[in-house]
Amino acid sequence: MSIKKRLSPEESRAAALEAARALLIETGPQGVTLKAVAGRVGRTHANLLHHFGSASGLQKELARHLAQTVCDSIGEAVRATRAGIGSPREVVDLTFDAFGREGGGALASWMLASGNEDALNPIIDTIHALVDDLHPEEVGHGSERSMHETTFSLVLLALGDALLGEQLADSLGVERTTARDRAESMMIAAFERNGVEV
Fold it and tell me: 7 or 100, which is more confident?
């Protein structure tokens, strides 16, 4: 007879979110159900309802979890670039991978299509906080707006690439990395405008 390890509420939520993230990557957003997540972590449907309230609550928390994970990685890459040990391409690749390979783009589009627009607020809020956190205090007036516009463009490029980049590149006969290359050029220009050597 196996005995289930008793998890704290925080550990149980964290395990469920990691399972939801894995399901998102493996099966797409339609596979992220309370039943599937419960089965993945060996808990009951009722247990997940207790932690998240509903499937919508789970999706919102997954969006928040993904946003925080993604933004932490992007933030580290931006700080490394500013310190001279990273590159704008790393920032671009992390962003594109978050929306593509990590499933953020599929999750975002699925939420929008299912009328759950407010579930994207955690992603938007986290990215906005990251930009504000990374904004260099010493640069001139207007640089914050410039970085917000750069972040806006980067996220839209990454989201679009995740949703139709492969098909569009094939259809137009362009290199698959074209959107990433353009985003990298944009990031380099933004850093240089804000006095950061790259």
Answer: 100
